[in-house]
Design goal:
The complex is a heterodimer of chains A (339) and B (526).
Chain A lengths: L3 E4 L2 E4 L4 E3 L7 E3 L14 E5 L2 H8 L6 E4 L4 E4 L2 E7 L7 E7 L2 E5 L21 E6 L11 H17 L3 E5 L5 H9 L5 E3 L1 H12 L8 E2 L13 E4 L7 H4 L4 E6 L6 H7 L3 E3 L7 H11 L3 E7 L1 H10 L4 E3 L8 H4 L9
Parallel strand pairs in A: 3-4, 4-5, 5-6, 10-11, 11-18, 12-15, 12-16, 13-14, 13-15, 16-17, 18-19
Antiparallel strand pairs in A: 1-2, 2-3, 7-8, 8-9, 9-10
Chain B lengths: L1 H11 L4 H14 L2 H11 L10 H12 L3 H11 L2 H8 L11 H10 L5 H12 L4 H12 L8 H12 L3 H8 L10 H5 L15 E2 L1 E2 L3 H4 L6 E7 L2 E8 L2 E6 L10 H8 L5 E11 L2 E2 L2 H5 L9 H6 L2 E11 L2 E2 L5 H13 L6 E3 L8 H9 L6 E8 L7 E2 L4 E5 L3 E12 L8 E10 L2 E8 L5 H14 L7 E3 L5 E6 L1 E4 L7 E4 L2 E5 L11 H5 L4
Parallel strand pairs in B: 1-12, 2-13, 8-10
Antiparallel strand pairs in B: 3-11, 4-5, 4-6, 6-7, 6-8, 8-9, 11-13, 14-15, 14-17, 14-18, 15-16, 18-21, 19-20
The chains are: A alpha/beta (339), B alpha+beta (526).
């Protein structure tokens, strides 16, 4: 019997009779992390890391039936030994390990190896079958160190202040926004959009310290944010709301900003190539650490990345899922897709 | 090179004209004279000879990064620019080489005298000692062609406002064929080389599409009306028995049209005239496809000269016996042009006919028949107008015939380059040919950014291929394609070629069953 299968509803654990990050309603869904393309509504029961529980309750509904579990804690589901391991993507993000009759499979959801100072850092898990994303599965994607990224963002804020400008950062409300807050802490007062505040609350409820900030009500006058820092989700780009901000310089924080053409396409004043996904080298490092015999490549550069893995002697296959979208949509206005 | 890198980055980062101008001003403040000169030279296409081929650059980049050929190509098609792709693929630099733009250009100019091994050592050393942004610029400088994210007009305005000069004077000063070695930036922009430069053309005066024909033509007799031709706008210069032909793209095209040069040689006096070069056989103006055979050829064979006879219609005169006439009225300039033409033997060259119509209604009829003689429509020039630099509203208008349109379906999509390298922006369209589809046109523009994103999403979901730059998509999205003309073509599978095809609008209301048929498209050919 196969341990995992790719079904129209999502990734299925055959002996365990449960799904991981399914995109259609099922009875039992194990959730890798709280982004909307991985944690969808309509499941009878959810199982996720403790930190993801408040995120699901906030994003899907407070009434869902959800159970939390800690990292490296194991439970048995229909005879399958299941455990969650840090994926380093956002808070609560996990790689889900399944063991049955000596066979081990790991579904990693989204992950990164860089330590962003907020999420529990990635831990490699040895397995026979590994399911990996490939969002940035091209060798042109090579991230700078987190310290360097953070200091570049902080410098940009200070430079804007010297020109009497307000620094506006665009980043997803779950994960990216909190990283930005950390990076620019102490340079200027921070204001965030309500959707970010809601998720900040989820961070706080599990004991994660975030910098001081104020919630910005765009229905009111927002002139007081002048020369400060405003963080908004991508849905607000090009909206009338954002135009109310005085003397704005705006930056997009996304791995896609690596490429000059993407920066110019968005015509932002600045683009910071910061991502919660692994870059090319880290994808390869992570996969090699699993020592997996077979790697299934999901969302992103599936064809390219899988072909490359086969060329370097790692058996691989591409899998069609409904996670993420191709690059063009990664910076779209849809809240919840991730960058 | 930091100042130049900062400028390139700043120009990339905004689409606001004032901010672009600020960035250029900042550069003028920081950079030294030679760097500014190089900036101007690179901007205006005065590039040094390529000292190292792109094939070698690719080889070396692959060697260092150990990236296989196919993966290199995937990366390239995702980035859309070779120099940037290489720079992104290379590992972090180990040190920093601090040279000015001019010093870099001197080093790059030396490359052609190096052996291949020396070139390789130099380039790898540079790659290993520049941060990404500067490494990318270095790669672009090697190739010389560099789009800087600012229009010619924007740059000229930036120079003229910084140095407090007339924009028209600046654009005159920086045209023509100066070199970095022999020029000085301040002297150049202040026009100190103009007199010694016989080939120096004037900026072309351009027309806007007409907005309200009836009210514009209210005082009918104030307007000089001519046909608008779809050929190559050219400026012919004769000074001290030297002849130059410039295209509107500021390229010298003298050698492509020997007939005109020979004829002008026989004319008396020195002058600068503006006109249109067209393919003309036995007095009849040929379809645009004919003229294309003449272009982009290094050597013109006798066969081509015979097959594609050309002629030129003169529109205007800008200089006569070294006197700048651009501030004279159109009416006055026309008189001088007529005199010049009348005094000289004419074979290939003639004056552009002034259309005589009694009233607006009659003119409308003339316009409607313009396509029959392969004209694009009408030009309306105010009789009191001066010869402006570039486009200026009000004095000159073009009143083109309505474009032809067809409905076609999207079958291939390709990612754009530069700003649009993350989106599918280059489309190929097909019309019906019996039961099959046949490619009819490629078009790049006409959609909004939002629509481009929407099409890109469709392409991502419906593409047949997974590798390479081109995606075949399910024939489903229908677009209305507008074009200026249509002619027979053996180069295209459909047997016809469209002139200036562009997307007029996305016909979301139509299905692939409703697109045009090739037989009907062919009927549009006159």
């Amino acid at each position: 019997m196969r341990l995992i299968q790719f079904r129209p509803e999502g990734i299925y654990c055959v002996p365990g009779k449960f799904y991981i990050d399914p995109w259609r309603p099922v009875d039992l869904a194990l959730i890798t992390h709280g982004h909307a393309d991985h944690a969808r509504w309509g499941m009878k029961k959810y199982l996720c890391h403790h930190f993801t529980v408040p995120i699901l309750q906030s994003r899907i509904s407070p009434d869902i039936q959800v159970q939390g579990i800690g990292y490296n804690e194991s439970i048995s589901i229909n005879g399958v030994n299941v455990s969650f391991h840090p994926a380093g993507h956002i808070i609560g993000s996990a790689q889900i390990r399944m063991e049955h009759k000596g066979k081990i499979a790991v579904v990693s959801g989204d992950y990164k190896l860089q330590d962003d100072g907020l999420s529990t850092p990635f831990e490699p898990v040895k397995c026979h079958e590994y399911v990996s994303e490939s969002t940035f599965g091209l060798p042109i994607y090579q991230w700078k160190s987190v310290e360097k990224q953070n200091s570049e963002m902080a410098d940009w804020v200070i430079q804007n202040q010297s020109y009497q400008k307000t620094s506006v950062f665009v980043g997803y409300s779950l994960g990216k926004a909190q990283r930005i807050m950390k990076a620019v802490e102490g340079t200027a007062p921070i204001y965030v959009h309500y959707s970010i505040h809601k998720l900040n609350e989820a961070y706080k409820s599990v004991g994660i310290q975030l910098p001081e900030y104020e919630v910005l009500d765009f229905r009111e006058d927002v002139k007081h944010v002048n020369q400060g820092i405003v963080i908004v989700p991508p849905a607000l780009v090009d909206s009338n709301v954002i135009r109310k901000i005085p003397n704005m310089a705006y930056a997009i924080c996304s791995g896609w900003m690596t490429v000059r053409g993407a920066r110019r396409w968005r015509s932002a004043d600045a683009g910071f190539a910061i991502s919660d996904h692994a870059d090319w080298n880290d994808l390869l490092t992570a996969i090699k650490m699993t020592e997996a015999e077979k790697v299934y490549v999901t969302h992103g550069q599936t064809a390219v990345f899988s072909k490359y893995l086969n060329e370097i002697g790692i058996e691989s296959e591409e899998v069609k899922t409904e996670f993420g979208e191709e690059e063009d949509e990664a910076v779209s206005n849809k809240e919840g897709g991730e960058v | 090179m930091r100042a130049f890198a900062t400028l390139v980055h700043a120009l990339d980062s905004t689409n606001k004209t004032t901010q672009k101008m600020e960035a250029v001003h900042h550069f003028f403040k920081e950079a030294d004279d030679k760097d500014k000169l190089w900036f101007l030279a690179l901007f205006s296409g005065r590039r040094p000879k390529r000292g190292v081929s792109t094939a070698l650059l690719r080889e070396w980049a692959k060697e260092i990064t150990q990236v296989p050929e196919w993966l290199f190509l995937e990366s390239y098609s995702s980035v859309g620019d070779l120099g940037e792709t290489i720079s992104l693929l290379l590992p972090e630099p180990q040190g920093y080489l601090d040279f000015s733009l001019a010093e870099w250009m001197d080093k790059i100019n030396l490359l052609s005298s190096y052996s291949e091994q020396e070139k390789k050592e130099f380039i790898i050393h540079v790659w290993n000692n520049l941060p990404h942004q500067e490494r990318f610029i270095f790669n672009k400088l090697l190739g010389g062609s560099f789009r800087l994210g600012i229009s010619t007009k924007g740059l000229i305005n930036a120079i003229s406002s910084y140095y407090n000069l007339e924009a028209s004077a600046v654009s005159h000063s920086i045209m023509g064929d100066w070199t970095v070695e022999k020029s000085n930036f301040e002297q150049l922009i202040h026009g100190e080389y103009i007199d010694s430069n016989l080939s120096k053309p004037y900026p072309f005066c351009l027309a806007y599409p007409i907005e309200d024909v009836e009210s514009t033509l209210e005082n009918f007799e104030d307007w000089q009306i001519e046909y608008k031709w779809d050929g190559i706008r050219g400026q012919v210069i004769k000074r001290n028995n030297e002849i130059f032909i410039w295209s509107r793209g500021e390229e010298l095209i003298t050698e492509q049209f020997p007939e005109i040069v020979e004829e002008i040689k026989t004319w008396g006096g020195d002058f600068v005239v503006d006109g249109e070069i067209l393919a003309i056989a036995n007095g009849e103006i040929l379809n645009f496809t004919a003229l294309q055979k003449r272009l982009n050829r290094k050597v013109l064979s006798k066969k081509i000269l015979e097959e594609v006879p050309i002629g030129m219609f003169l529109y205007d005169i800008l200089e006569f016996n070294h006197q700048d006439l651009r501030n004279e009225s159109m009416q006055e300039r026309r008189k001088i042009l007529e005199q010049l033409v009348n005094q000289n033997p004419l074979q290939h060259i003639n004056i552009s006919t002034v259309i005589t119509a009694n009233d607006f209604e009659q003119l409308r009829e003339v316009r409607e028949q313009a396509r029959d003689i392969n004209s694009e429509g009408l030009m309306l020039k105010h009789k009191n107008s001066v010869y402006h630099v570039g486009r200026k509203k009000g004095d000159w208008w073009k009143w083109k015939i309505d474009p032809l349109t067809i409905d076609a379906v999207l079958i291939y999509a390709q990612k754009g380059s530069g700003r649009r390298s993350s989106q599918y922006t280059d489309y190929t369209f097909a019309v019906r040919d019996g039961e099959k589809l046949v490619t009819i046109a490629k078009a790049y523009s006409g959609l909004t950014d939002k629509e481009i994103q929407e099409v890109s999403r469709f392409v991502n979901k419906n593409a047949v291929e997974k590798f390479g730059p081109v995606r075949t998509v399910k024939p489903e999205l229908v677009f209305e394609i507008a074009f200026e003309g249509i002619g027979w073509s053996s180069r295209h599978k459909a047997g016809v070629a469209l002139r200036f095809p562009r997307i007029l609008r996305w016909r979301k209301d139509k299905t692939v069953a409703e697109i045009d048929d090739l037989e009907n498209v062919k009927k549009l050919i006159k």
